[in-house]
Amino acid sequence: VECGRTKLSRELSEKAPCLDIHNYMSLIRAAGRDRDVNRAFAVLEQLRVSNVPVDIAAYNCVLNVCVCVGDLKRACELVDEIKSKSTPDVITYNTLLKGYCSSGKVKCARALLIEMEEAGHKPNDVSFNCLLNASVSS
Fold this sequence. Notes:
By secondary structure, the chain is an all-alpha fold. It has helices spanning 6-15, 21-33, 37-49, 56-69, 72-85, 90-102, 106-118, 125-137. The longest helix has 14 residues, at 56-69.
């Protein structure tokens, strides 16, 4: 996947007897490289039905794919799912923040920053730089 051979990685994963969380995350990142949100969600669904527990890092990988292709609707839906099944972390919030900022939704980004703090996650340099850059650009 790291060398850009996403099709080959998919083919190999289909032949593997079992996958671990790292394999699934590599496949999600490969979908992201191909800008294929549907495939990222399909891999997430494969992970859900496997015996491998879905962790926040896997959710964040799919979230990043959504944000990178500009699919904020699915990104927000995924964050809602994360909130119902797990606890979002700083990376979750910063990734969604990046999505809002890159699409010019600075008010949504500011509201998310407040939500992040209320959830007990202290915004960091990434949070503030993202918001600052979006504010300057708008």
